[in-house]
Amino acid sequence: MAHRQTPIDDTYFAGERAGSFTVVGSPVARSDARGHVTGRTEFFEDVRPAGLLHLKMHRSARHHARLVTVDTAAARAVPGVVAVLTHQDIPNNLYTPLKLIGVTPDDEPVLAVDKVRYLGEPIVAVVAETEAAALAGAAAVTVDYDDLPAVFDVEEALAEGAPLVNEYQGNNYFTYEGHHCRRVRFGDVDKAFAAADHVFEWRYQSSPIEQAPVETTGCVVVPQPDGRLRIHSDTQACFFTLDNTALILESEFNKLRIVGGTVGGGFGGKVDVVVEPVACVAAMVTHRPVKFVYGRYEEMQVSSPRAAERIYLKDGVSADGRILARQVRAYIDAGAYSRHTPYGTTKAAAHFPGPYAIPNVSIDCHCVFTNRTPSSAMRGFGVTIGDFALESQMDRIARALDLDPLRLRLINAYRDGDMKAHRKLAEGTALVEVIQKAADLVGHDLPEPYRSMSSTDRKGR
Amino acid sequence: MARLFGRGYAAVNYPTGMNLGGDPSQALIHATTTGTFVISLSSVDLGQGLKTVVAQCAAETLGLPIENILVDTADTDTGPHCMGTFASRGTHRIGNAVIMAATEARAVLLDVAAEELEVDAADLETDGTGYVKLKGSEQRKIHITDLAMAAHFTHGRTISGRGVYMKDKSEVVPETGEMDPDSCQAHACTVAEVEVDDETGIVEVLAMYSVYEVGRALNPAMATQQVEGGAWMGISHALFETTEPYYPVRDHGPRDFTEYLMPGAGDIPVQHSVLLERPAATGPFGAKGIGEMTANSPIPAIANAIFDACGVRLEHMPFTPERVLRGIDELHAG
């Protein structure tokens, strides 16, 4: 089979690449490629059991509001509507997905109870014989709102007097063992700033980003003759979904079975557990198979995106370009509920101050609640936006000091044996080598001693 | 009015795994009487090729052809536990679990072969062709299909193995942030070349040069797909994508792919990539997780290239034509 193959430059780390292999390192054809390109791969939506019902959601039309009345009578009257579910139908309505690894508190309702905290929050689930009837039923639900002040900016959310987004959290930030942020402290940044030849401080910002899978988030739940539920899902984590769903259903774990493994694009968006629990309740109530799949609008605006981040980087730098101190203040926009953002925020704290040996570091990563769609996992969350900030910062420092951008990075690059800010010893480093090779690719002049630097020793430091 | 050329650089690292909650994954493997080995998992292949690379890990460890390996995964009734596919952990965690399971199965396989061939198991070898043979001999050998039949019908043995990979949970020290969250670090350096149209604000990425240090490329063709696809996503993040174009203002959110734009074929630059391998001590055959990292270095490389081209420092992603033009206006006003 023809394939493109990126060359491997085996002159780097030649001594560490020992071993000869017969299968590893060879371009074995992807096992599912033929099925994908011929349209024969079966995804969860190809499961079409007899008597399948469709679930659609009535969602909040407000950013932040009390629910005065929720009237489902008109929805129940729509021809084809079989069941209408509210929070009272969900056995354990309050959850947070990372409770499986000990994260507290439960802070999110499966279906809204007395208020909504973001535009698009699910309030009422309508189950019907056809997709059209389910959509008509969901549209027929009427909700009276009592609007509350909303907050959308992460720093405004942390200011005194800001509206409280999530009562279960108690503050507009996630609390890390008594701290209002995830912090890293290494050396003494204040002393280093005072001693530095230059101090630079800049601000970076990103906006939320959609995982944009071709296949939207969804599941088909099929009740089994033995009373169990078989859940066909495009989840990225079968047991994680099973365990969270069982906790919400107050079900024994072995009453559920997840069948998955074929996913039309994940990128982190299918780590949340947002369709299976309510679809299972619908299947239990109706004793019929139920499908709940997001439409494209829901995938874009309701399903959790990559968090927006605001990052302030302050660096103390010597005249010759050595970074002596780096202070990071990051505000990561969790939206209305925590989902996976407390974890992503900790990942950010471990990633800063980037792949450089910096002796004095102070990091405050805030996981902030606002009245927007909850953010959650997405490819590299906690790192991707940080890298945008860190590497823009390095470019600006190089320009401010009139230094070559690659040489600046090389003299600061972390090497084996360096202690990182979160007190983990660096090993297996290769930043120096990827920079050297990239310079070769574009003909960027890299003289001695930069040329002979190595990740395995401290020469040229 | 002009198209302005610029070049920008960025270098990054990326952690494999994130085990703040403990992070185990299991694999089971057994031979059927056809001599086919079935790997049972509950892990999810998101399209990155997990099923293929773990089959390679099993084939390499067993010393058998890849055609003798089947992967049965993502059913919680039949597969052992996996934490899931995220944090660039799949190849690393599940690859290791599969190697452990296959190592155990290989020991049984050699044991049974030793009985069949009436030799010492330590004197046997495999060469990836499907035979187990006495070292240095072309006569004393047995095919895996015959061996699997003999194991079941003659010796009453299962050729099977169990594997698990777990890195202990790392608690974060709240005061200092001390923690051990990852298993290894991959690396990348990207050089982006762009043209900025100072009339429309449109940024075109002309070429990208990237070097990725990946530990070991278990499958260089799929590693290529990951680095090229990831770089595409990085370009998309840099120049196109957001669900809230005027964040933190909540309005004007796109509803579908006609409003949520991403690079099409004509927007994709020429990519020149090279892989370096510094095998990780903890990785399966040294592999590191690279899936997520490959989208990261293009973003700041493009930001820095835009500055190089037109002097506009973009601090807010994505770098839309509107933001580029407003930046150019500010420069002229200043």
TrEMBL record, chain A:
Domain Aldehyde oxidase/xanthine dehydrogenase a/b hammerhead intervals: 38-149
GO molecular-function terms, A-Z: iron ion binding; oxidoreductase activity
Species whose genome carries this gene: Actinophytocola xinjiangensis
Signal peptide: none
Pfam families: Ald_Xan_dh_C (PF01315), MoCoBD_1 (PF02738)
Transmembrane segments: none
Lineage: Bacteria, Bacillati, Actinomycetota, Actinomycetes, Pseudonocardiales
Keywords: Molybdenum, Oxidoreductase
Record's protein name: Dehydrogenase
UniProtKB/TrEMBL annotation, chain B:
InterPro entries recorded: AldOxase/xan_DH_MoCoBD2, AldOxase/xan_DH_Mopterin-bd_sf, N-heterocyclic_Hydroxylase
Any one GO molecular function term: oxidoreductase activity
Residue stretches in coiled coil: none
Domain Aldehyde oxidase/xanthine dehydrogenase second molybdopterin binding: 5-269
Domain of life, source organism: Bacteria
Protein name stated in the entry: Aldehyde oxidase
